Every structure is written in structure tokens, then in C-alpha cells.
Amino acid sequence: MSRRLTARLNRLEDAAPKAADVPMCVHHGEACGLGTVALPEVYVLAIQARRRLGMDAPPVDEHRLATPAEAARYRQEVAEALAEAKARNDRMEAALRCGQSI
Question: Where are the domains of the chain?
């Protein structure tokens, strides 16, 4: 490929939206699309169920764009939760393979 074409492709890749550039709602995360698309019905039902149980739940109809710091904190919390779940699953799998009870 020519040097000019490679340089153009690199500039396009740099300008393309990244996963971190996805708008994030403070209340609903990336699920709501900041009101551009309807919340998935199962998400709305989960919020309503949490409220019936007296648990804290985000407002269904209120949206606010997360600041970069809030979005970073959210993504960090999600990464930690996923790592914890993966570690727990790995321990369970190891126990099952060894024939131990969980």
C-alpha cells in the first residue's frame, strides 16, 4: 500500500468513534442510549421490580450524560465485577474438575 493511503487510513482510524466514546447515562449506563432508543423492556421491568421490593433503582425517564470521570468509574466497577465473577467461576470449575464439593 502506498504511504499516502496508509497515512489516510491511520487518520480515519484515529477519528473513528471508540468504545469509550459511547455516550453513557449516569442512571442507566450504556443501556438507554441517552433517550435515543427506548430502554429494553426487561431493563424497565427490572427497575420496577426493584422499586416494588423497596430497593434503590434509577429513574426510568431521567437521563444525564455521565462526565468522563463518572464513565471511567463505571467502567472500572464493571471490570472489577467481571474479574470477580470470572475468578469465582474459575474456582468452581477447578473444584468440579477435582471432584470436590463447591
Answer: 18-66, 68-102
Q: In sequence order, what E strands does the chain have?
A: none
* Contact (Cβ atoms closer than 8 angstroms) between residue 28 and residue 38: no
Q: Is 0.70 surpassed by the pTM of this model?
A: no
Angle at 16 between CA 83 and CA 75, to 5 degrees: 20
Q: Which of 69, 54, 78, 61 is nearest to 27 (CA)?
A: 61
Q: What is the pLDDT of residues 25-73, one digit of tens each?
A: 887 777 666 655 566 677 778 878 888 999 887 777 677 788 889 888 9
Ramachandran assignment for 58, one of left (phi > 0), alpha (psi -120 to 50 degrees), beta (any other): beta
DSSP state of 29: B
